[in-house]
Write a structure and sequence with these properties.
Layout (H helix, E strand, L loop, with lengths): L1 E7 L6 H11 L3 E5 L8 H4 L2 E12 L2 E2 L9 H5 L5 E2 L6 E2 L9 H5 L5 E2 L2 E11 L5 E7 L6 H18 L4 E8 L3 H7 L4 E6 L3 H16 L4 E6 L5 H13 L3 E6 L4 H7 L4 H4 L1 H18 L2
Helix pairs in contact: 1-11, 5-6
Length: 290
């Protein structure tokens, strides 16, 4: 079993469109949506949920008003300003609390606890493309999205192993933060989706610097490549210097938007145009892994 992660240095490059198209042309695969902060792969795959599980990660301070002696020490030492005294009782604002636990340590009355927090839900679903999708939803204002991504990846790999499937295709998060680091962990190959703008090139360089630290081989798809041939050439030079395979350069096409608004993949929107292209991309990727 091989795990392929599709990421981008910035949002809006067409990463999810590429992932959904690869889901159509590949076989024997499990899909995983690790963009838990703003998941959208489900909009195309239209999952039918088979199982769901609450996910707990991190802690938040809670003050028991019956045990609190109103000494105020917790409010003084909280560097995040999460503890207030609005109605004669000390209270913790869960959105401001970072769960460091210092207030619990200094409370003379033992009135502060640090319960585990529910931060989201994980799902395993069937999809209309005849593949399983492992996905998740981070609760509003919740932290620890990196841990939730790790949970999604574990479940996806286990589902693939149980079904004796060959591939796990992961739609990762944009950027270089904790969810991306978690998405990359354990991957066999990384597909970098970029666009020919100076910000696109800069963010490609940053995300590849992160990927390189994991020692994971990678390839790149330049989307909207004809919009700025000069920057596309700069991206090509960067790929050559870093020994990153240029998998494809896709011209600007409003089919990306049209397909997304209809909730279908590019391959389904116009099979004659996109099926051969993404079949070639998939063939290129699988050859890189053999």
């Amino acid at each position: 079993m091989k795990e392929i992660v599709i990421i981008s240095g910035k949002g809006g490059t067409g990463k999810t469109s590429v992932t959904a198209a690869l889901a159509c042309v590949s076989r024997s695969r499990i899909m995983a949506d690790c963009d838990v902060d703003a998941a959208d792969l489900h909009l195309i795959l239209q999952p039918r949920i088979l199982s769901r599980e609450d996910f707990y990660g991190g802690v938040k301070a809670v003050i028991d008003p019956a045990a609190c002696v109103n000494c105020g020490q917790c409010g003084v030492i909280c560097r995040f300003g999460a503890i207030s005294h609005p109605n004669g009782n000390y209270e913790v604002d869960p959105l401001d609390c970072e769960g460091c636990g210092y207030c619990q340590q200094i409370c003379p009355a033992g009135a502060i606890s640090l319960p585990q927090q529910k931060v989201g839900q994980c799902y395993i679903s069937d999809t209309r493309l005849d593949c399983r999708l492992v996905h998740a939803k981070l609760d509003i204002g919740a932290d620890n999205s990196g841990k939730l991504v790790a949970k999604v990846k574990r479940d996806a790999r286990q589902t693939a192993e149980d079904g004796q499937l060959d591939w796990v295709l992961v739609d990762g998060s944009p950027g270089i933060g904790c969810p991306v680091i978690s998405s990359l962990s354990g991957a066999d190959f990384v597909i970098l989706v970029t666009e020919p703008s100076l910000s696109g090139l800069h963010d490609l360089e940053r995300v590849w610097s992160l990927t390189r630290n994991f020692g994971i081989p990678g390839g790149c798809v330049i989307n909207k490549a004809d919009l700025n041939p000069g920057v596309s050439a700069l991206i090509g030079g960067f790929l050559a210097r870093e020994n990153i395979a240029l998998i494809d350069h896709i011209p600007y096409d409003e089919d990306f938007t049209r397909a997304m608004t209809q909730g279908i993949s590019l391959v389904e929107y116009d099979p004659q145009k996109w099926q051969p292209r993404f079949a070639r991309i998939w063939s290129h990727i699988t050859k890189e892994l053999t």
